[in-house]
Amino acid sequence: MPEAPRQDSRTGSTTAPTEEELRTLDAHWRAANYLAAGQIYLLANPLLTEPLRPEHIKPRLLGHWGTSPGLNLVHTHLNRVIKARGLDALCIWGPGHGGPSVLANSWLEGSYSEKYPDASRDARGMELLMRQFSFPGGVPSHVAPEVPGSIHEGGELGYSLAHAYGAALDNPDLLVACVIGDGEAETGPLAGSWHANKFLDPVHDGAVLPILHLNGYKIANPTVLARLPQEELDALLRGYGHEPIHVAGDEPATVHRAMAAAMDTALDRIAAAQRAAREDGATERPRWPVIVLRTPKGWTGPAEVDGEPVEGTWRAHQVPLSGVRDNPEHLRQLEAWLRSYRPEELFDAEGRPAADVLACVPEGTRRLGATPYANGGLLVRDLPIPSLDDFAVPVDKPGSTTHEPTRVLGDLLARVMRDTADRRDFRLVGPDETASNRLQAVYDASGKTWQAGTLPVDEHLDRHGRVMEVLSEHLCQGWLEGYLLTGRHGLFSCYEAFVHIVDSMVNQHIKWLRTSRRLPWRAPIASLNYLLTSHVWRQDHNGFSHQDPGFVDHVLNKSPEVVRVYLPPDANTLLSVADHALRSRDYVNVIVAGKQPCFDWLSIEEARVHCARGAGIWEWAGTEDGTEPDVVLACAGDVPTQETLAAAHLLRRYLPELSVRVVNVVDLARLLPQGEHPHGMSDFEYDGLFTTTKPVIFAYHGYPWLIHRLAYRRTGHQNLHVRGYKEAGTTTTPFDMVVRNDLDRYRLVMDVIDRVPGLAVRATAVRQRMADARTRHHAWIREHGTDLPEVAEWSWNA
């Protein structure tokens, strides 16, 4: 049992509930349980004003009862402490399919009816609430975007605790409770998330209260943590830096008392830790509380069905009584179960919640379903992004100078970090790669947040920093999602090959945004921005394991109204794209850019215009004479752009009579038809850019078949030939990477000769010269370990 409750740190009044308060807490909990069960089963007769009949039951019984009573208990007791202490709070509901409970509680408190007036707080609205659950045209079984107060879907498990910490960052007055299901606790991302407390600043951040709900079972198996001896579980949680507070039982009155005491104890400890850091200057990392809640799976539901135990077993996970429409005994059991909550005491004759039920509910925006922190677009402010002219690199002639694009971007991000120092609403996250990715200028504005021990050799660690590095892509993603969903801004910098680790997480976020866009009450949030660097073409030193450009393919499969992919070819175009992405709302922006020295092709003004077009002709790079070109050299990505321009250079030299058009693509979605993506080109635009009859040699950053997929319905698709990465990777030289994948300048010239009618005969000697250059390359790198001088020293103006 937890220790006796202390004085409330804010009000000075005792927080232990009276017997009368315990009675009303139980009434609220029973009402929520009744509504949760009703959503799974009932199509009509929501108040049981007549005997239950088969036609009152849904034809398909969908939903998950097992976790619902525990979630309802947590919601009820959070209501109590929020109201008693005047807290601003948010709850992350981690257990999968917890929708019935959160829907029930938001309906009871009135926030659901405010968003959906048809679901009024009366019998008619109750019937709609129940009918719509997991029903065509209704709402999902998860805590989805449609549910007020939610920022976490709870469908795919593992991300709740990371989201909770992301929400708490830079929200010093916010309590973020996080219910973690014991099945969810077995996932890798959740296991990694326990380390997030080493990054939580008790001065500038809010508090996270994990509530580990051990009901013992997953779908069909016991859960690991529920079967650990308490001593071993406590050792695990203490090893993670938490102090466990236990609540266990199956007798409601006893559990209510224990849960109230546990909440008070936890919040007193949190208040003491924050006061010590904020007022007394304490720098020692707090040992934050965690509540371990053990209640039976399917608590208060049927104890036994068809002679098999249900309550407290895996059989309670979904629908305890599955044959209600056809089996009279199941129908009888369901009615007895629903009536056991005594709905006539909980709702009046019109179906309105009784005063006892609402006694613990906070008011206004303190209700969990009405908190603005769960609708972050209401809180978000525009970033103070400075003029790009302050950071742009001068370009007098294309290709005459080089810069490291991400280093240039780092200067811009440092300014943004500095200009948000007081607001604290911008964070840079990444897995131990900020300096590796050339963004270290941000350290001049903010260090790396760190609450664990430090040594004299450490650099840039800062208890109050806003650069976040942890070697867990899952945790970086979860932090940033929670941060954005509660109304702030950020950027995720990652090695291109390893961003795949969060493929599934970004799926969920994209689905969230797509659904949110269709809800008029959800305000747009800042976009999730990825900077993918250390990319495939410059991982020659790390080798095959670090070479994978496929995240772009993955993202472009998703909802077109949400996803955007940009491949800026130089430093100034990267600045322009980043400026656009950081200002945008409700998108997932993927920016792929190199960190190695790269030629500067466009001035900042030219970059702005080119990025606004998304794809365009570089007239200075081609040899068009006012008529239709003989061939189009297209490119997307920094290294493919360099190889394309080098190929154009060779064609000028060896085939000066050839009319060559050079097209650069920054925004990949521009290749899609206009009806397939908001950025897609009309057929008229596409045909004008790429022609309908001439060969197009397209040098692409990633897997070549993506370009074919994007353009397969275009008139000239049969003329499109794409070169890109084809899994021919190894540890080698930079230029050998493009040669191995047939993306090099010499191969591109050969492709032109092979595909422009008449050149195969006329330019045989030129083609042979290109093939010989590739042969010389292979011999040179094996002897010298470096690229050919003619490649390493090449420039457009040479």
Could you give a short description of this structure?
The chain is built from 26 helices and 22 strands. With 798 residues, it is of the alpha/beta class.
Overview of the structural elements:
The N terminus is likely disordered. The chain is an alpha/beta fold.
Average pLDDT level: 95
What structural class is derived from the secondary structure elements?
alpha/beta
Secondary structure tally: strands? 22
What composes the largest sheet?
A: 6 strands, parallel
Task: Compute the number of helices.
Answer: 26
Shape: elongated
Rg for CA atoms: 30 Å
The assembly state of the depicted protein chains is single chain
End-to-end CA span:
79 Å
Helix proportion:
25-40%
Q: Low-confidence stretches at least 5 residues in length (pLDDT < 50)? A: 1-14
- Biggest sheet strand line-up: 12-9-13-14-16-15
Portion in beta strands: 5-15%
Q: What's the topology here?
A:
Blueprint: H1 19-41, H2 68-85, E1 88-93, H3 99-109, H4 111-115, H5 123-132, H6 160-168, E2 174-181, H7 188-193, E3 207-214, H8 230-239, E4 242-248, H9 252-278, E5 288-294, E6 304-305, E7 308-309, H10 328-339, H11 343-346, H12 355-358, E8 402-403, H13 405-419, E9 426-430, E10 448-449, E11 461-462, E12 467-469, H14 473-485, E13 489-495, H15 503-517, E14 528-533, H16 551-556, E15 563-566, H17 571-583, E16 588-592, E17 598-599, H18 604-613, E18 615-617, E19 631-636, H19 638-654, E20 660-665, H20 683-690, E21 696-700, H21 705-711, E22 720-723, H22 734-740, H23 745-755, H24 759-762, H25 764-784, H26 789-792
Parallel strand pairs: 1-2, 2-3, 3-5, 4-5, 9-12, 9-13, 10-11, 13-14, 14-16, 15-16, 19-20, 19-21, 21-22
Antiparallel strand pairs: 6-7, 8-17, 18-20
Helix pairs in contact: 1-2, 1-3, 1-5, 1-9, 2-3, 2-9, 6-14, 13-17, 17-18, 19-23, 23-25
Enzyme class: lyase
Protein name: Probable phosphoketolase
Family: Belongs to the XFP family.
